[in-house]
């Protein structure tokens, strides 16, 4: 059974890095990666689903987490157990259940860094599981060229079902390279940037929910003013501007492919007020959601 030290906050710390390096070293030996699942883009994402804008992979470690994914024109629930892998192509949604005790590892491949995140859900008898452990670590540079080509190959395989077969070898090689990148100790200046990256990732995963600066600060055990400082210093913008940008980017991408109603689109992007959503959308994209992507 995997065990983890619970960090005080879900940001980069020495203990987080050490735990994650140990996990990455053990995984290729202890897991065969026999089942690799690839959601496709054939189903409209349901409300509350997560639609990443960067490639990511989720490994089942303990238990079996139910995850709703699009596959061959319908939404179906898979159970991600130990040794199972879910490869998520950018812009392909998934919706994980929070009702089952389990542990997963997620690697996210950003143009500027690679992040590793362990999530663990536990529950006392008769209660709903809660996320008790959140372990994050971030590299301070993009993965090397060979690892990047592996990520692109796995992205391609997501839509080439007849050409699969080497995923396990590719994943083992990718894990080794990610571990090498994460083995490089961060600089003192890098800790603030890693905290900011963790905040950005949290916003990317929860922008469809009614989050704001204060709720995100509470989730990380930080003061709201500190969150504001990090976004100004590291990102050059306010947290609210970053969050709105995420929502508008997702709204535009979703509308180009799906042409949803304004009500549906607003719900997917974390807006409760449709009229306010239309105003924000028009300000960002110069037209209304209904006209966007239709050439009118």
SSE blueprint:
Blueprint lengths: L13 H17 L4 E3 L18 E7 L2 E7 L2 E7 L3 E5 L6 E2 L5 E8 L4 E9 L7 E9 L6 H13 L9 H16 L5 H19 L6 H8 L3 H12 L3 H20 L3 H7 L5 H12 L11
Parallel strand pairs: 1-5
Antiparallel strand pairs: 2-5, 2-7, 3-4, 3-6, 7-8, 8-9
Helix pairs in contact: 1-3, 2-3, 4-6, 5-6, 7-9
- Largest sheet report: 6 strands, mixed
Radius of gyration: 19 Å
Q: Count the strands?
A: 9
Residue share in helix: 40-55%
Description of the molecule:
- The structure is a single chain.
- This protein is of the alpha+beta class.
- It folds into two domains: 14-185, no CATH class; 187-296, Homeodomain-like (Arc Repressor Mutant, subunit A), CATH 1.10.10.60.
- Helix content is 42%, strand content 19%.
- It has nine helices and nine strands.
- The strands form two sheets. It has a six-stranded mixed sheet. A three-stranded antiparallel sheet has the order 4-3-6, with no helix packed on it.
- Helix 1 runs antiparallel to helix 3 (167-182), helix 2 packs antiparallel against helix 3 (167-182) and helix 7 (239-258) crosses helix 9.
- The longest helix has 20 residues, at 239-258.
- The N and C termini lie far apart (57 Å).
- The model is unreliable at 1-12 (pLDDT under 50).
